[in-house]
Input
Amino acid sequence: MGRKSNSEEENGDRKPVPRHLLVIRTSAMGDVAMLPHALRALKERYPEVKVTVATQPQFKPFFQGLDVDFLEVDVRGVHHPMRKMWLLATEMRRRGVDAVADVHGVLRSRVFTCAMRLHGITIVRIDKGRKEKERFIETGGRGMAPLRHTVLRYCDVFRRLGFEFDDPRPAVRTPHPNPFGEKQGLWLGFAPFSAQPGKTYPEDMSRKAVELLAARCERLFIHSGGGVEKAFAEEMERLYPNVTALFGKVRFDGEIDLIANLDCVVSMDSLVMHLAALVATPVVSVWGATHPSLGFLGYGVSPEGILQPEMACRPCSVFGNRPCRFGDYRCMREISPEEIVAKVQQLVGR
Output
C-alpha cells in the first residue's frame, strides 16, 4: 500500500480530515485580513488539503503567497439575493467541497452553509465570543484577561473539523517589490482614518501628527479612502514635499508591498494595522472607543506599540460603532501627536 497522507497518519482510525475545505469570510476588510494567518498555519501542517476561500474579489491580495483557491462572492451585486447563495452552494458541491468553515457567522453565510448542509457537507461555524465581549465592554475589562484573538478563533473552527496544528507564528519580514522605487532613509506610514468615528484620529491632531512625522523621516505615506479622507491626504501632500497621498496611486497589492518596505506604520484600529501585521512591519496602534484586548489587535503586532488612554468610559464598543456618550469621542483626543512621534521613535530606534 502507498504511504498515508499527513491527515490519515495523524488521525489514525479516526475520521479523516476534509480534503477540500471551503472557508467563508466576505467582510469586513480587517477581519478578512486576519484570516491568512490562520490559513498559513493550516497549510503548513496540511499542505495536501485543498482550500478555497469564499470572499470578495478585492481581498485576494491579502492571501498572496498562500496556496489557496478563491470563490468570488459579490455581496452587493450578483450574489446579493439570498437565493444566489443557494446556487453557489450547489456549485461548490460539484467542485468536491467536503467541509465548510464559516468564520463569518452572519445571515448570508448561514444561508449558504444551510444549503451546504442539505448537500450532506460538514459545517462548522465560528464562536465569536459575543457574550464575553459584551461583558468586557460592560466592565471596562477590569478583572478580565485579554479575550481570545480573532485569528485563534479562526483556527478553532478548523480544529473542530479535525485538523490538528499549532497556533500561527507571527509573520516574518520578507522582500517585497517597492512600488515607489528605491528606499532611502526612514519611510513611515500614517493611517488616521476608520469607518467609525470612535476609531478615527481627529483632523486637527492628524494635521499636527503629519507635520511632526514628516519632519522626522525621508518619506511619509498617508493611507486613506476616498472623499474627505482623500482630500485631507492630498492637502498634506501639497503642504509637505516628502508626503505622499496613496489613494488612487496604488491598489491593495501595491499598498501591501509598500507597507512591507516601511520602517513603521501609525494606524488606528483599522485595516492598515492588519496589513502591516501580514508583512511584519512595526506598528504604532492608537486605540480609542475599542480595546486591543477584545481580540482585534493586529496578529503578531507588538504590544509595545500600543497607545491607549486610561479612561473609565472606555472601551465603550466592540467595533467602535456606538455613539459616544459625551458626543465628542474624547478618547481619541487623549493620545497626542507628540506621543505618537515618541512611540514611533521608540520602535524604529531613531
